[in-house]
Design goal:
Elements (H helix, E strand, L loop, with lengths): L1 E5 L4 H13 L4 E6 L11 H4 L4 E5 L5 H11 L3 E4 L6 H6 L2 H21 L3 E7 L26 H20 L3 E6 L2 E2 L8 H10 L4 E4 L5 E3 L1 E2 H14 L5 E4 L4 E3 H12 L6 E4 L14 H7 L7 H14 L1 H9 L2 H9 L3
Parallel strand pairs: 1-2, 1-4, 2-3, 4-5, 5-6, 6-11, 7-10, 8-13
Antiparallel strand pairs: 9-12
Helix pairs in contact: 1-8, 3-5, 5-6, 7-9
Bound molecules: nicotinamide-adenine-dinucleotide (NAD) and 2'deoxy-thymidine-5'-diphospho-alpha-D-glucose (DAU).
Nicotinamide-adenine-dinucleotide (NAD) binds next to helix 1, helix 5 and strand 5.
Length: 339
């Protein structure tokens, strides 16, 4: 099987590359990644040693480059992780989100039509469902929950999902879509809550919690997301959407306090800052469908996963310190300077 993994130099894509190389050693993985601020070739250094892995630098919105790649590589399965993924950046500058997340997806879909594939898989997000009220813990997102987005990021991801479904209905393209909750684990870019708090706590810097820290996210260890996608692309039903999540809901404040406790740092580092505009209150996935139809179950509980993740950041300081030294310093000033 020849699998094209787009966005494989980012957080989840790189974890997926390693998952596939380990669990399906006979498959060939081609990674297409534009290496934006979020893509990091160091992350793929070990994969580069494997003869069944090939890296190609390129933009999914570049039609000519994408068509050339499909022509050369004879792809069987596409797994599209490539995206602008950070909600706060989408609030600052929506346009690149539209280009990569919508136009990029449409180019990949056109390439699949033109060259033929066995399956196109769209890596989507629970954010397409909007949010749930904090006081209704009985409510969960199912695959039939209406699309109702809040941010430019989630709107662009929802638009991409609709396009993928349209290509299935109109052109009969074989597709699947997965909508996952918040991931955490190795190689998570230090602009997102968990790695940001770990790196700042280690430097005894203030930890910027939005609003009162009451918003709830449903955390999934990244390897569990990878195992779910792996099952969907091999056994999932054509045309279907699968929600992925493991019932690990935590308030942001609980997450930050857990990190401080594991690192033995004081809670006085917590600083409450101006809330994110349009901030979604609660995400919570109902994963019944993927469990019943494909037998998927997550294996890592939050309390174990967060310890493993913190250990990874302690053991891999050069990976994230190098990122913090670069452009990201300017990003922190810009985003949090006046908050
Ligand atoms: P990330 O920001 O860490 O990585 C994105 C990768 O895509 C980077 O390597 C980047 O260089 C690449 N990329 C960006 N624009 C590109 C373009 N135009 N062409 C080619 N490559 C491009 O993102 P992530 O957190 O790993 O998320 C991966 C996917 O999973 C995204 O589609 C995201 O919407 C989805 N998702 C993420 C989460 C989460 O918690 N992080 C949860 C559910 C779904
Ligand atoms: O639910 C899936 C989504 O999870 C993915 O689709 C997105 O790509 C991914 O970035 C993530 O989105 P969130 O907005 O939930 O993740 P983030 O890590 O940015 O924020 C998590 C929560 O923490 C959110 O409620 C905002 C809050 N937060 C975040 C940052 C960066 C803070 O309180 N302070 C911060 O500095």
């Amino acid at each position: 099987m020849r699998i094209l993994v787009t966005g494989g130099a980012g957080f989840i894509g790189s974890n997926f590359v390693y998952y596939e190389l380990k669990n399906h050693p006979d498959d060939k993985i081609v990674c297409l990644d534009a290496l934006t601020y979020a893509g990091n070739l160091h992350t793929l250094e070990s994969a580069m040693q494997n003869d069944n892995f090939k890296f190609v630098k390129g933009d999914i919105a570049d039609r000519e480059a994408v068509y050339n790649l499909f022509e050369q590589e004879k792809i069987d399965i596409v797994v599209n992780f490539a995206a602008e993924s950070h909600v706060d950046r989408s609030v600052e500058n929506p346009e690149i989100f539209l280009k990569t997340n919508i136009i990029g997806t449409s180019v990949l879909l056109d390439a699949c039509r033109k060259y033929g594939i066995r399956r196109y898989h769209q890596v989507s997000t629970d954010e397409v469902y909007g949010d749930l009220p904090l006081d209704r813990t009985d409510l969960f997102f199912t695959e039939t929950t209406p699309i109702h987005t809040s941010s430019p990021y989630s709107s662009s991801k929802a638009a991409a999902d609709l396009l993928v479904q349209a290509y299935h209905r109109t052109y009969g393209l074989p597709i699947t879509i997965s909508r996952c909750s918040n991931n955490y684990g190795p190689y998570h870019f230090p602009e997102k809550l968990i790695p940001l708090m770990i790196s700042r706590a280690l430097a005894d810097e203030s930890l910027p919690v939005y609003g009162k820290g009451e918003n709830v996210r449903d955390w999934l260890y990244v390897e569990d997301h990878c195992s779910a996608i792996d099952l969907i692309i091999r056994k999932g039903k054509d045309g279907e959407v699968y929600n992925i999540g493991g019932h690990n809901e935590r308030t942001n404040l609980e997450v930050v306090k857990t990190i401080l406790k594991v690192l033995q740092k004081p809670e006085s580092l917590i600083t409450y800052v101006t809330d994110r505009p349009g901030h979604d209150l609660r995400y919570a996935i109902d994963p019944t469908k993927i469990h019943n139809e494909l037998g998927w179950l997550p294996t890592t509980k939050f309390d174990d996963g967060i310890k493993k993740t913190i250990k990874w950041y302690l053991d891999n300081k050069p990976w994230w310190e190098e990122i913090l030294k670069g452009d990201y310093q300017n990003y922190y000033e810009k985003m949090y300077g006046n908050r």
